Amino acid sequence: MDADIVEGTITCVIGPNGCGKSTMLRALGRLMKPRSGLVELDGRDIHRVPTRAVAEVLGVLPQQPTAPDGLTVADLVARGRHPSQRWYRQWSGDDQDAVARALEQTGLLDLADAPLSELSGGQRQRAWISMVLAQGTDLLLLDEPTTFLDLVHQVDVLDLVRELHQQGGRTVVMVLHDLNLAARYADTIITMREGRVVASGPPADVLTPVLLREAFGLEAVVVEDPVTGGPMVVPVGRSTV
Asked: Annotated Gene Ontology MF terms (predicted)?
């Protein structure tokens, strides 16, 4: 089954552990080549597009990213400008402005000189998102941006992602584990199982008892979210079918 990423929307990829969510994101980001099938970027095979040209279009935040010891927030965010560097044009005022703008957008301008290691989990995730923002792309691929965060910080990060989407019209694709957070923040949900897409569409069309049983082996009741009016998944137990 094909999966289309619609420009200017937020897409969440969900599915059980080991189903291929991160692999899909890596393929979309040209970090790996799929054994079969094709990833197209603006109608072109992404593996036929020069690496620098891809980096100018999409930014990727991998799962559980790591940084060298002693790196400050500003140092990390500045790394997002590397794709814009040339041998004849190194660091410039435009780069400095892009870093400052990314830090301001994520609320980290006052922490620019702080060591990354001293930040809270939520702040650190904001710093990584700032690095991707500094790259200046309109397409963001985020692999489990809420991993290891408590619920308050998960909502904080996802609110930031939605705000960045709404303000800049960015296209966002992110892998999430929490079905109800995916339902709340996504325009489109892609559901995977065993390396293939089993459903793709609006949350209300995808998060149904039948599809949850097929994809997750989960018996669930789907009710109306009292806040958004969208679907809310209430687990019942493991499916015996």
From this structure: ATP binding
Residues 65-95 pLDDT 10s: 888 888 999 999 998 887 655 544 565 677 8
The whole-chain average pLDDT of the chain stands at 87
Q: What is the CATH number of domain 1-57+143-241?
A: 3.40.50.300
pLDDT tens, residue by residue, 121-179: 889 999 999 998 888 888 999 999 988 888 999 999 999 999 989 988 899 999 999 99
What is the three-state SS of 157-214?
HHHHHHHHHHHHCCEEEEECCCHHHHHHHCCEEEEEECCEEEEEECHHHHCCHHHHHH
Terminal CA-to-CA distance of the chain, rounded, Å? 24
Question: In angstroms, what CA-CA distances link 222 with 11, 23, 183, 204, 239?
Answer: 20, 28, 11, 9, 15
Q: Are 176 and 17 in contact (CB under 8 A)?
A: no
Question: Which uninterrupted H or E stretch holds 224?
Answer: strand 218-224
Q: Identify the CA nearest to 207 among candidates 195, 194, 185.
A: 185
- For the chain, which residues make up each domain, given as ranges? 1-57+143-241, 67-136
Residue range 19-38, pLDDT digits in tens: 889 888 888 888 887 777 77
Q: Which residues pair with 197 in a beta bridge?
A: 192
